[in-house]
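Recap from last week: sequence in, structure out.
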Amino acid sequence: MPRHLMAAGEIAKRLGLSRQRVQQLAERDDWPEPFDELSMGRVWLISDIETWIRHQRADRVRPAEPPPTAGPALTTEPPPHPPSTANPPPAGST
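Predicted structure tokens:
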């Protein structure tokens, strides 16, 4: 088979799915149209399948939450810490 085409078995391997699952996906409205139908079955352009994969992954990525627009001012400096009294310096060390 030419290197620019993929059959269901190759797509299944690429996606980590069964051939049966690829055949189910091929029935979806958003699945690419086959390039041709051979005696062995339908074949697709690799570029069409890769585009479909990219779109699927993009749909799964959720946008980041926008930064808050109200409330206390945001600063990049840490809040001041009071002097620690847990471990005072030894007497006479100053």
